[in-house]
């Protein structure tokens, strides 16, 4: 294979200036945007070496071919595994290679797990966009719908992974430096997106956006713009749409009425009058949908997937949440939670006692709506810690404003359970944070302090 030179990046002030492996010396250059942590040994964290991350080389826009990956327990040092076809890039053994190979295997054997993961990720980082573009000439607005997932620059490869799995969509970088995966084609949305989100419904308030998004799709693809007069066709949807039209069979503001003229002229006028009225009705329906879309859900809105838990409808009753059981939340699947945690969850190390320097591991997340989601996660994690209104956001409470709900736990047993529950399952940058968090468990003070700094640094990127 010969000597291969590969740049390794390190944030200023962290790590060594170079590292040598298999006789090849790698230079370290400061780069705060692209970083990755490699541990020198399985047993402890030493000076962190940050390397340019590319957890999915095969999906990178500048690379092709497949990456040879190894199992997580084998990671002992920096080592070169293989060269991507073309000889332009090298593959480095990485801290998180286990979950890459694991997820690839799972999704090939059972795509349903990927679909559940995607729904969970969308709950946090996804959007169902209804876009109205006003026309300069005073014509009716142009409407577009888009399914979108957004990630920071450091997690862009996650989007290429999703694109590869779905086989559709575009990944692009926006002006603010973030990356987005989008599907705009209505036929593809209907073919790829709707089947996933219909089978595994959204569990948060985002369900409201999805329903409006789907209604907009059916209005925009109803084909009524080309429909003929009801007397000359049998399209049931158009019949219903036009059944209550006040102008179709009477005076028309445009000077046309269905039935004007004779022979072919009569039919042409009738068709034109129908199309004018249809366009007007379509525009009215889209404006109505858009109004609710812009307004957003009510502060007490709960996804109907929770409707069988009738006691949750009264969100003011604390006992309603305390009485939840695991049998109530079977629809909160493991892979949904993995995707949701990838978007919203946090792994951290905190100092509970500044004087005694008592560092401990913790995990948690904060949501503006959907307290029931946090209650379900608390049950899944077998945690005693209760969901609470985050004190930092109590000022946001009040009429017309939603509370911010938070759940976190520093329980050793909960953290150990989470290590087993999430092991080898994260796909994107969360895998790095999770690996640092796990590998620093039960370590000495120096290691904990370093790991805490690394986690805080990654949280900002």
TrEMBL record:
The Homing endonuclease LAGLIDADG domain extends over 118-217
Extract the Gene3D superfamilies matched here: Homing endonucleases
InterPro entries xrefs: Homing_endonucl, LAGLIDADG_dom, LAGLIDADG_Endonuclease
A single GO molecular-function term is:
endonuclease activity
Q: Which PANTHER family match?
A: INTRON-ENCODED ENDONUCLEASE AI3-RELATED
Q: Name one GO cellular component term.
A: mitochondrion
Keyword annotations of the record: Endonuclease, Hydrolase, Mitochondrion, Nuclease
SUPFAM superfamilies named in the record: Homing endonucleases
UniProt-recorded name of the protein:
LAGLIDADG endonuclease
């Amino acid at each position: 294979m010969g000597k291969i030179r590969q740049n390794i990046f390190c944030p200023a002030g962290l790590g060594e200036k170079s590292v040598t492996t298999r006789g090849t010396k790698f230079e370290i250059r400061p780069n705060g945007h692209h970083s990755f942590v490699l541990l020198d040994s399985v047993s402890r964290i030493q000076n962190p070496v940050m390397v340019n991350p590319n957890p999915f080389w095969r999906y990178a826009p500048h690379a092709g071919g497949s990456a040879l990956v190894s199992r997580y327990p084998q990671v002992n040092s920096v080592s070169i595994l293989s060269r991507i076809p073309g000889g332009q890039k090298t593959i480095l053994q990485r801290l998180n290679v286990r979950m890459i190979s694991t997820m690839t295997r799972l999704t090939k054997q059972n795509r349903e797990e990927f679909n559940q993961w995607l729904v969970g990720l969308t709950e946090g980082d996804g959007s169902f966009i209804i876009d109205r573009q006003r026309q300069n000439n005073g014509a009716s607005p142009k409407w577009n719908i888009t399914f979108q997932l957004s990630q920071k620059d450091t997690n862009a490869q996650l989007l290429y992974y999703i694109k590869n799995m779905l086989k559709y969509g575009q990944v692009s970088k926006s002006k603010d430096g973030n990356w987005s995966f989008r599907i705009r084609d209505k036929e593809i949305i209907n073919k790829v997106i709707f089947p996933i989100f219909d089978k595994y419904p959204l569990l948060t308030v985002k369900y409201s956006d999805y329903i409006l998004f789907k209604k907009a799709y059916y209005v925009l693809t109803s084909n009524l713009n080309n429909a003929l007069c009801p007397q000359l066709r049998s399209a049931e949807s158009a019949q219903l749409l036009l059944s209550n039209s006040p102008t179709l069979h009477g005076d028309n503001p445009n000077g046309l009425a269905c039935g004007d003229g004779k022979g072919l002229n009569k039919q042409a006028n009738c068709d034109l009058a129908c199309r004018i009225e249809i366009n007007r009705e379509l525009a009215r329906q889209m404006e109505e949908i858009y109004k609710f879309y812009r307004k957003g859900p009510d502060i007490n809105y709960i996804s109907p997937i929770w409707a069988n838990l009738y006691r949750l409808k009264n969100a003011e009753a604390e006992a309603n949440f305390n009485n939840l059981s695991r049998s109530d939340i079977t629809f909160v699947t493991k892979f949904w939670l993995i995707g949701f945690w990838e978007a919203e969850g946090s792994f951290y190390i905190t100092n509970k006692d500044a004087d005694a320097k008592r560092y401990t591991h913790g995990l948690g997340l904060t949501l503006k709506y959907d307290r029931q989601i946090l209650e379900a996660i608390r049950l899944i994690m077998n945690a005693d810690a209760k969901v609470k209104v985050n004190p930092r956001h109590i000022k946001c409470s009040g009429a017309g404003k939603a509370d911010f709900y938070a759940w976190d736990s520093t329980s050793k047993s909960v953290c150990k359970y989470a290590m087993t529950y999430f092991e080898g399952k994260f796909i994107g940058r969360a895998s790095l944070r999770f690996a640092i968090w796990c590998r620093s468990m039960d370590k000495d003070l120096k290691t904990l302090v370093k790991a805490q700094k690394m986690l805080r640094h990654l949280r900002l990127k």
